[in-house]
Write the structure tokens for this entry.
Amino acid sequence: MHRYLIKIAFDGTDYHGWQVQPNGITVQEQLQNSMKALYGFSPDVTGCSRTDAGVHAECFFCHFDLEGLIPNEGVIKGLNSVLPDDIRVLECKEVDADFHSRYCAKKKTYLYRIDRRNISDPFSCRFSYRYDGKLNVGDMNYFCSTLCGEHDFEGFSSANRSVQDTVRTVYDCHISENGNYLELFITGNGFLYNMVRIVTGTALEVGKGKIDKNIAEKIFITKDRSIAGATAPAKGLFLKLVEY
Amino acid sequence: MHRYLIKIAFDGTDYHGWQVQPNGITVQEQLQNSMKALYGFSPDVTGCSRTDAGVHAECFFCHFDLEGLIPNEGVIKGLNSVLPDDIRVLECKEVDADFHSRYCAKKKTYLYRIDRRNISDPFSCRFSYRYDGKLNVGDMNYFCSTLCGEHDFEGFSSANRSVQDTVRTVYDCHISENGNYLELFITGNGFLYNMVRIVTGTALEVGKGKIDKNIAEKIFITKDRSIAGATAPAKGLFLKLVEY
């Protein structure tokens, strides 16, 4: 048995997230269907993260086991020949049988893109959330900096999360201005359900002056989701980097 | 009565071209439906060109008449509030009653994007045609240069065109390398049905060494569509600029 780790990228617009589910097509399902078409059976494909519906990935890892030893280039070409264009296999390598794309991940980096134009661009509107009102980027960056370190992020997650332990370490969180976009980057050892989108929604409210830039400490202590900002739309979010 | 000229941009992926037709939704139809929602009736919206299904526009002009005098900014905001995200109104101005977005256009520039990567990018695959084989760009550029001037382009058009006069003037045609892309630009006083896609398909065959770089003269004389290259896929084509 050989274990393969592949790096994929996908436009999540038309998918109900990563994980197979009854009410819509998912990225995992597309991969498993492609393997069925290519190899005659569907191995279980395990992903590095459970991305929400509509979220994109420039870098997403998943692993699966095959009986045969297939050249890496053959896995890439074969899967890309049957997958839809909005999912691409970028890299493939054989890994040890105990390697796990999710549990072995040490750091993940997400990017949230906010389009600052007053009219959105039809060629990039799938990949950003447009907000052209006034924003205090200095205050947003201050708020981001207060997230760094080990904290209980329960107040920054949605109620229907599946995990018990809500303590995570954020290594970096900052906002950069990049042409027409504000880009929020956040790197951590793991993220709770909807956490990056709630962090972004809170940063936006801080930028508008509607939430105090020191709110993070209060949310860590009270674990009160209701004092954080709204969950920002999925379309602006990218899984950007996964480090092992 | 007031005549308005608007500049729009659209991602043509999900549309059956510009012009209203029975078998699928079109950009013209979306605009007319939006005006119906906004103003209570649908004025005729006349476009500068009949783009094919799947073709995009960074710059497309159309005109329509309304009884009321509406501020330009109000037309832009109103239409963008009801149009889908893949069509955006960028500019609006009132023009003379005899101005016609199609007949008054003096020059149009199209861009065809060829992605040279061996794996396409899921975030831009809607907007380019991927070809990663070897291409002689010098020969392609030579072929492009031979299109310039006034010629009978009948052999570079599809049989089901609606016009009689097939003579057009090409002011410029060249290919630039731009990062991962080869970009074919063509500027002319008008274009026949599928002309830019057939020019691009022929340029690709010239680049592969399968069609002689001096083929254009022969096609102008014989008007023989069959000796030109295949019609390149719609997804790589953009209407880039319209000049009045």
User: Anything to note?
Assistant: The first strand of chain B starts at residue 2 and ends at 10. Chain B has a mean pLDDT of 95. The radius of gyration of chain B is 19 Å.
